[in-house]
């Protein structure tokens, strides 16, 4: 049977069968064949939104939704995120007191509060079945079998609701939504406060016009994205400048991506401004490397000439 192709936004390191055997020896467990092949081909890693979403019956809900963020594999991801099934997997297993009868392999979008494991020794479930584990539930109620095998689990993975096929042209409906969120979606309090602290009249209008020139789901860099982020950061640096790239897209409450995900939010959607991690990081690194974003005593500051250009381009 052919192996299903799984796409990773940030893959780990491909490896040989010898490396797989080394991982298995360290774990004391033989991996399912489909998992072995996945790690060999890709290193596993951070999943693409193209195949990161599944539903299953749980807690009275016939279609409980789970977004799978990462499948552990070999080495770090190409962005430097921990990803090793042995080193990182063992650390998390110890930290969250995961029993040795299962093997942690998947982390959800909500973190380790919801994780996935392969069964090796729990008698209530089939050998090598894939289990959903709710860390906040007590007892067996928090464990649900979602697939009889790792191969079946991979076949369950479908597109995330926020996934946009880059090969498909943006529809008029998409454009209408981008206009509506940009014009009407409220900004989070922190961004509103920061805008009011700047000396720039009409900055919120500039930011909203710049947002409208971006796409529904930003997955690539563009001049329009840079203009938008320049204006947003110009506001933020007047309140609390970021300390480094770890504050740009680090799943922190006040990180740049979190602020924008929760801004421009309208009723029909679960998130506001939608953008992958990579474009944020490329914007930051580009501005730092060219000397436009400069570290000072209490954080990084964007040069005035960059801001002036962004204001002109957002008219």
From TrEMBL:
Entries under Gene3D superfamilies matching the protein: SMI1/KNR4-like
Knr4/Smi1-like domain segment(s): 14-156
SMART domains: SMI1_KNR4
Domain of life: Bacteria
Pfam families reported in the protein's UniProt record: SMI1_KNR4 (PF09346)
Name this polypeptide is given: SMI1/KNR4 family protein
Taxonomic lineage: Bacteria, Bacillati, Actinomycetota, Actinomycetes, Mycobacteriales
């Amino acid at each position: 049977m052919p192996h299903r192709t799984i796409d990773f936004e940030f893959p780990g390191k491909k490896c040989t069968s010898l490396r797989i055997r080394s991982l298995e020896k360290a774990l004391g467990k033989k991996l399912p064949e489909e998992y072995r092949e996945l790690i060999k081909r890709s290193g596993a890693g951070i999943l693409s939104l193209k195949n990161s979403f599944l539903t299953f019956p749980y807690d009275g809900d016939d279609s409980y939704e789970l977004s799978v963020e990462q499948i552990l594999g070999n080495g770090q991801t190409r962005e430097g995120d921990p990803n090793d099934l042995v080193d990182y997997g063992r650390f998390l297993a110890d930290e969250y007191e995961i029993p040795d009868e299962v093997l942690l392999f998947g982390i959800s979008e909500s973190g380790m509060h919801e994780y996935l494991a392969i069964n090796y020794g729990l008698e209530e479930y089939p050998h090598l079945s894939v289990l959903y584990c709710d860390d906040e539930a007590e007892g067996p109620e928090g464990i649900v079998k979602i697939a009889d095998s790792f191969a079946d689990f991979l076949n369950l993975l479908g597109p995330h609701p926020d996934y946009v096929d880059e090969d498909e042209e943006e529809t008029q409906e998409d454009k209408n939504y981008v206009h509506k969120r940009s014009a009407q979606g409220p900004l989070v309090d922190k961004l509103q406060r920061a805008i009011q602290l700047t000396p720039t009249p009409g900055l919120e209008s500039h930011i909203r016009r710049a947002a409208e020139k971006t796409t529904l789901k930003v997955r690539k860099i563009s001049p329009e994205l840079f203009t938008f982020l320049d204006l947003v950061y110009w506001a933020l640096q007047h309140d609390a400048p970021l300390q480094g790239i770890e504050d740009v897209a680090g799943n922190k409450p006040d990180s740049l991506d979190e602020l924008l995900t929760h801004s421009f939010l309208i009723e029909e959607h679960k998130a506001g401004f939608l953008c992958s991690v990579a474009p944020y990081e490329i914007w930051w690194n580009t501005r730092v490397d060219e000397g436009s974003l400069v570290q000072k005593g209490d954080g990084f500051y964007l040069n005035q000439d960059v801001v002036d250009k962004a204001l002109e381009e957002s008219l």
